[in-house]
Amino acid sequence: MKIGDKHYRSVWVAEDGRTVQILDQTKLPYELEILDLNTVTDAATSIRDMWVRGAPLIGAVAAYGVALAMKKDTSDANLQAAYDELIVTRPTAINLKWALDRICPALKEVDPAERLTAAYALAGEIADEDVQINNQIGENGLKIIREIAAKKQPGETINILTHCNAGWLATVDWGTALSPIYKAYNEGIKVHVWVDETRPRNQGGLTSFELGSHGVPHTLIADNAGGHLMQHGEVDLCIVGTDRTTARGDVCNKIGTYLKALAAKANGVPFYVALPSPTIDWTVWDGVKEIPIEQRDGKEQSHVFGIGPDGTRTWVNTAPEGTTCGNYAFDVTPAEYVTGLITERGVCEASPEGLKALFEK
Predict the structure, then answer these.
(1) CATH number of the domain to which 343 belongs
(2) Residue 220, Cβ neighbours under 10 Å: how many?
(3) Which of 15, 80, 99, 289 shows the smallest number of beta carbons within 10 Å?
C-alpha cells in the first residue's frame, strides 16, 4: 500500500540483504519511522512491545526473527533458542506459532552451512504468501460489497464499520478486513468506513491513517457509538479481522469486537470476519474457554498517547492516582454471531462444516 507516493510493506529486508526493516507502529500516525532489526532479540522486542502488531504481521516478523538468529549461529541449539525466545512474545495470535512451527522444522532439515540463506528465503516466502492471501481475501470480500451496492440506489454510500486495525499495517500488505474495502474503493464503489477508536491503544488511529493515505472516506468514532449507528440504519455491514479462529468458527479479536457482534445481531446488520487460513487454530474448539486472552500493562488503559499543540508527543494520564486498571487485549465472538468468514479460499459460514468445506484436504 502507499503512504503518499511511496509503496510500503510493513516488513521488508533492507538493501544489504540481511537487515530486517519495519515501520515503528507505536509512532504512527504522528511520525513515520523505519526501524532496523538486526538480532532475534530485536525481532522479539518488536513483537512484544508492539512496534509491529496484527496476527499475520507478527508471524512474518517472527519468521524473519529466526533468520536474524541464523546470522549469529546456525546450530540446532540456536535455532531452538530463537524459537523459545519468539514464541513467548504474544500469547493470543496463533500466526506467531504457525510461522515458527513452519520455519524452524524446515530449517532443521537443512545443512547448517546453508541455513542462513534458507532462513531468509523461507521468511520471504511466508511474507509473500501473506500478501497473496490478503489480496485474495480482498477479492472475495469485494463480492459481498458488490452485492450490497447492487441493492442501493445509484450513487448511494455503503457504510462499513470496522474495529481495531486489520489493514496493511497489521499484515505484510493489503490487510484482511480492509482489503475488500480498498478493492471496492479502487473499483469506484462509493464506500464510507466507520472506524472504531479501539481503546485502549487507539488502533483506530492506524486505520484512519491507512484509509486517509488511500483516499477512502471514513469517520473515527468512539467504541460505543457503533450500536447507536446500527439502530439508526447507518451501518450496512461490519467487517473485522481476527487473531485466532477456532475449528467451529469462533473468532478472537481486539477487545470490544464481541459487543459489536451483539449489536449487529440485534439490528440485523451482517457481521463478517476476514481471516487468512494461518489464523485458523484447528486444535481449539471453544474459543471462550480455550483461547488465552492476553492481559497487558494497565498503563495502556490509564494513559493515552497523543500529540500536543506544540507538536510534542507524550503519554497523558487519564485515571486517578492509584486506580487499578484491567487491560484485557482480546475477546471471543462465538460463531453464532458471525454472518460469514472471508478467507482466501472463499466465504463460508462460521461453522465446522463451513470451514471444512473450504479447507479440508
Answers:
(1) 3.40.50.10470
(2) 18
(3) 15
